[in-house]
Design goal:
This is Transcriptional regulator, XRE family with cupin sensor. Pfam families: Cupin_2, HTH_19. Keywords: DNA-binding. The chain has two domains: 67 residues, Orthogonal Bundle (434 Repressor (Amino-terminal Domain)); 97 residues, Jelly Rolls, CATH 2.60.120.10. It contains five helices and nine strands. The chain has a six-stranded antiparallel beta sheet. It has a three-stranded antiparallel beta sheet with strand order 6-5-8, with no helix packed on it. A hairpin with a 4-residue loop joins strand 1 and strand 2. Helix 2 crosses helix 3. The two termini are 26 Å apart.
Length: 184
């Protein structure tokens, strides 16, 4: 897991250097301080998919290239077999498995997300990113917060929302939760 985070950090640094961007500009795009951004590049700080998505959108690079180091290449279809999608685990209990990483020019980014349970009193980190998001719970139960609204989603429940609003998900009942997330 830590090696994958470090590799993403190296790709961020490579992107910044190849586009001749300042640390300040990258940090502003991510919505973090310069110090926190540099820790992301060093693989010492959490790399949220929403921050990577913001960078991919602003600089016109495939999200897959930042997350997995591979450019998508298929343009007619891309098949992902069960358990075979490219994945990255973040430090703080989220595992993202891309379900369309090889499809070039796609208009949405589908992920199977696994969330490990955290203590009830763990801090809640709200996130925002451009676009819209669709979530459907497969296993476990989800505590979803969007702005000041709170929802509990059961297996089979789904929600579509404006991802520009602060939001976060948490597994309930001390049970691992899996859900389909599609970012548009």
């Amino acid at each position: 897991m830590e090696e994958a985070i470090k590799q993403i950090g190296e790709r961020l640094k490579g992107l910044r250097e190849s586009l001749d961007l300042s640390v300040q500009e990258m940090a502003e795009t991510c919505g973090v301080t310069e110090d926190k951004y540099l820790k992301m590049e060093a693989g010492e700080n959490d790399l949220s998919v929403s921050r990577l998505y913001k960078l991919s959108q602003k600089y016109g690079i495939a999200l897959d290239a930042l997350m997995f180091g591979e450019e998508p290449h298929m343009c007619s279809y891309f098949l992902t077999r069960r358990g075979k999608g490219m994945s990255v685990e973040r430090k703080f209990a989220y595992k993202y498995q891309s379900l369309a990483s090889g499809f070039s020019g796609r208009r949405a980014d589908p992920f199977l997300v696994t969330v490990e349970p955290k203590p009830e009193d763990a801090p809640v980190n709200m996130d925002i990113h451009p676009g819209q998001e669709f979530n459907m719970v497969w296993e476990g139960r989800m505590d979803l917060r969007i702005g000041d609204k709170k929802f509990v989603l059961e297996p089979g429940d789904c929600i579509y929302f404006d991802a520009n609003q602060p939001h976060c998900m948490r597994a309930l009942d001390n049970v691992t939760m899996r859900f389909l997330a599609i970012i548009f």
